[in-house]
Amino acid sequence: MPNTFMAVAMDLPDNGSPFGSIHPRDKDDVATRLVAGSLNVAYGRNIAFQGPFPLSLVRSEQNHVVLTYPNDQKLHVTEQGSFQVCCTAPCNISEPTPSPSWTWTPIISHQHPAITIDTRACINSGGKAEMIRYAWSLTPCEFKKCSVYNDQGFPAPPFVLPVSDMKL
């Protein structure tokens, strides 16, 4: 939809809130993200307002998957455990975490603008990486500790994306 935006706040959980976890007490970070979105979308200011989102997911010769992000946002990788791989099609994206179809997979390297994740477990099980999902759980990370941010501190949003057969 044109002229709309979303502020990602999955990295701001407040499970101890007396108002329930859906009402975190940290309103300042949410407000900062909403203001950035409104300045960009409603007022046309050229400022970042969203976290990084991958442009492509491609298998490498080493049976890893390389996620390439846009060059306009510097990546900050802070934690290693938010990616999952599905090794056998069809991949049911609605399966909860953990599930038999989706396996946690670590980041093995990152250098702007790419993150490489280890999908050799798929080869070991006789399959290949079909889809990758990121931050696909009820509370995907602790307070401000998701795996991927941009240099403005905006977290990458959750996603489920197919892996391309093109080799790097």
TrEMBL record:
One of its GO terms (biological process) is carbohydrate metabolic process. PANTHER family: SIALATE O-ACETYLESTERASE. It comes from the Eukaryota. One of its GO terms (molecular function) is sialate O-acetylesterase activity. This is Sialate O-acetylesterase domain-containing protein. InterPro entries: SIAE. It comes from Ciona savignyi (Pacific transparent sea squirt).
